[in-house]
């Protein structure tokens, strides 16, 4: 389906007053789903006002009370007028390449996937959505934007003034300019494809179905063009525990000298068939599966790996980290995959198909705590 997005709207941003809260670098965090316990502890220690206290609280009631307290104390302040925001993120990817990703931050209307206006590309975990729904009910604020792709052009150049909001976190520098002219949305058309934030979108949609109000009908989103030169997707490798399944006879196996050679060989393979690398202590195997003649979309590397029935699965975007986990015994084996292309992500979404969970890693994750959107508009 193509056509105009029915509603992409400005919003009255809720954001930190750094005069009260302190430097913004110490207040922001990644999205809730990539905050392990050790990082949460560091964020808590960084500032008594770090946003992690709201997105990964001890309890939903504690988060709601703290949000009220920060509003009353002026730690968080509300913009008087709605606006869109231009976001620039400067970063160095896991591949060592410097990039700048640019997008627009606003509210998009929540609609079921079946409407063909907003489309998923990955499956989700039910348990994560239940936890987020409880927190959304308590806070009544969209804390983290989702990352959404569109086929229009990237936004024009940044205004020639100092950014209204700026923060650096985990090697990514985010700069935001307030835009009062909504005409920048003219080239954004449906369908939109969710790149990152499926759980947040589906949770917000379920909450809206409960509430049924115009105020609950939107989700905070950063819209990035598929043609943006800073848009990049990296793989999400699998770490597995015992027992490690044997590769069946339909998979061609090539023993290689080590992870470096195996990854180089994997990267040079054509995309006409799924492939992956298996790392075990002291060995590396390049595995190539047969193409699926019955699918126009092809079979993803992650789909073949997930069919193996891995035990105690964990995920990492860092191949070096995966190799180290195997060498140290933290993982029994690692399964290294190639990232889907942007074209594959779009093709799956438009065909109504979804990739396995954790098939893509759009880097960097959007920083939480720069702009928030209460449900009262």
Spell out the blueprint of helices and strands.
Blueprint: E1 3-4, E2 8-9, E3 14-16, H1 18-21, H2 37-46, H3 52-55, H4 60-73, E4 76-78, E5 84-92, E6 98-109, E7 118-119, H5 126-139, E8 141-142, E9 146-150, E10 165-169, E11 172-179, E12 189-190, E13 192-196, H6 198-211, E14 218-225, E15 233-234, E16 237-241, E17 252-256, H7 259-268, E18 275-280, E19 283-288, H8 301-306, E20 311-316, H9 319-328, E21 333-336, H10 342-350, E22 361-362, E23 373-374
Parallel strand pairs: 7-13, 9-14
Antiparallel strand pairs: 1-12, 2-6, 3-4, 5-6, 5-11, 6-14, 8-23, 9-13, 10-11, 15-22, 16-20, 16-21, 17-19, 18-19, 18-21
Q: How is this structure best described in words?
A:
With 377 residues, the protein is α+β, with helices and mostly antiparallel strands. It folds into 2 domains: 3-232 and 363-374, Conserved hypothetical protein from pyrococcus furiosus pfu- 392566-001, ParB domain (Alpha-Beta Complex), CATH 3.90.1530; 236-338, no CATH class. It is 25% helix and 28% strand. The chain has 10 helices and 23 strands. It has helices spanning 18-21, 37-46, 52-55, 60-73, 126-139, 198-211, 259-268, 301-306, 319-328, 342-350; strands at 3-4, 8-9, 14-16, 76-78, 84-92, 98-109, 118-119, 141-142, 146-150, 165-169, 172-179, 189-190, 192-196, 218-225, 233-234, 237-241, 252-256, 275-280, 283-288, 311-316, 333-336, 361-362, 373-374. The strands form 6 sheets. Strands 2, 5, 6, 7, 9, 10, 11, 13 and 14 form a 9-stranded mixed β-sheet that branches. A 6-stranded antiparallel β-sheet has the order 17-19-18-21-16-20. Strand 5 and strand 6 form a beta hairpin. The radius of gyration is 21 Å and the shape is globular.
């Amino acid at each position: 389906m193509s056509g105009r997005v029915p509603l992409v709207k400005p919003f009255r941003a809720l954001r930190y007053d750094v005069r009260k809260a302190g430097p913004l670098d110490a207040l922001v965090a990644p999205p809730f789903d990539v905050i392990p316990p050790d990082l949460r502890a560091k964020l808590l220690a960084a500032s008594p006002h770090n946003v992690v206290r709201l997105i990964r609280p001890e309890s939903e009631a504690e988060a709601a009370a703290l949000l009220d307290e920060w509003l009353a104390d002026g730690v968080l302040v509300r913009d008087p007028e709605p606006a869109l925001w231009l976001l620039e993120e400067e970063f160095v990817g896991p591949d060592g390449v410097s990039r700048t990703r640019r997008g627009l931050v606003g509210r998009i209307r929540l609609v079921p996937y079946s409407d063909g206006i907003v489309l998923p590309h990955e499956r989700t975990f039910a348990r994560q959505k239940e936890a987020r729904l409880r927190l959304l009910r308590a806070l009544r604020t969209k804390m983290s934007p989702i990352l959404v792709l569109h086929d229009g052009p990237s936004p024009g150049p940044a205004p020639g003034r100092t950014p209204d909001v700026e923060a650096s976190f985990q090697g990514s520098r985010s700069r935001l300019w307030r835009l009062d002219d909504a005409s920048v949305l003219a080239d954004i058309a449906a369908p939109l494809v969710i790149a990152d934030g499926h759980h947040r979108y589906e949770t917000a949609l379920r909450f809206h179905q409960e509430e049924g109000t115009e105020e609950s009908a939107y989700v905070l989103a950063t819209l990035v063009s598929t043609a943006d030169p800073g848009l990049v997707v990296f793989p999400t490798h699998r770490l597995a525990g015992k027992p490690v399944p044997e590769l069946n006879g339909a998979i061609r196996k090539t023993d290689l000298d080590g992870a470096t050679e195996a990854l180089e060989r994997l990267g040079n393979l054509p995309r006409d068939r799924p492939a992956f690398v298996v790392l075990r202590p002291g060995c590396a195997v390049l595995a190539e599966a047969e193409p699926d003649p019955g699918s126009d979309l092809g079979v993803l590397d992650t789909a073949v790996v997930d069919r193996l029935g891995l035990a105690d699965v964990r995920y990492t975007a860092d191949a070096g980290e995966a190799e180290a986990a195997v060498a140290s015994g933290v993982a029994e084996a690692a399964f290294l995959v190639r990232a889907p292309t942007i074209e594959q992500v779009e093709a799956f979404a438009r065909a109504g198909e979804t990739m396995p969970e954790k098939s893509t890693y759009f880097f960097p994750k959007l920083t939480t705590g720069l702009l928030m959107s209460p449900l009262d508009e």
